[in-house]
User: What shape does this take?
Amino acid sequence: MKKSLQIGGAYVGIIVGAGFASGQEIVQYFTSYGYKGIFGALIATLGFAFVGMCIAQISSRLRTTSHKDLIYQISGNAVGFVMDYLLSLFLFGVAVIMFAGAGATFEQMFGLPIWMGSIFMITLTIVTVMMNVQSVINIIAIATPYLLAVVTVIAVYSLATMELSFAEQVVIAEQQLRVESKSWWVTALLYMSFNIGVCFSLLTVMCGSIRNERVAGMGGIIGGILLGALILLINLSLLAKMNIVAGLDIPMLALANEIHPIIGLVMSLSLLGMIYNTAVGMFYSFMVRFFKPKKPSFKVAVIFLGALGFLASLAGFTTLVSKLYAVMGYLGFILVAAIVFAWLRGIRRLA
Assistant: This one.
């Protein structure tokens, strides 16, 4: 059970990056749909739990060491080749976004130059990635209960101090920026598939080292349920205070500051922790795709590509990166379909 909880915690930790924890993604994908967003969150929860279980069990069965091992078996050579390199590009791109996000957060919190915050996060990421996979899992999993506790406090406060009725708050919520899809359930599935694309690589690495399929699968289910709980808590928090957080870039931080400046500081540190988690998850997955962790060249490559990531982070959040996210959402649909099909037909390790 302990191993399953570690996998579940790490599953959450990979996905809950700055956008998720800040509440901005939740507003666009769920809260902006009003009451329907609650049902959307439930659909996403079921998707995260089921698909997470499928990935975990297949990875354990095939003993995968990178996403390449799984993608080619479930997609074939031609489609697998395209998905493999698109996914690898995406991993590095998300890591760069996290480095840039850390720089921006340090500037806002402490008034430090952006490059200083980026270097701090890159250095921390490089040191962590040089550890073994179990150490990476443990570190990423640690932040999950911490975030759950902070979000629960904010949710209870928001619901207890509502100034308007839910009906009035829904009217405001439905006027907020949302993703392009007009259908709440398609949006929920798109959110799930996008994030499966985010966590897919590290999940395959983590669960490939687990020899017990049942333990690995339970970890996927636990992680999916925890993700759903976070989505629902953040969604209800924002919906209860939509008259206050409407239009804000980091709505959860605004709610935390409303409770007390210390809670705001705790939430800010939590955001940095989530940025760190995602940066480590993405960068580690990218590295093990092309380099063997036990070889000396791995550490040299980590430092070199970390420096390259720093240079790329100086560009900030570019249009190219934002388009990369959109592409990943639809690539995620293909991934989810291939994973579920492979799980249903009971794919086995090739001799």
The chain has one domain: 2-342. The mean pLDDT is 83.
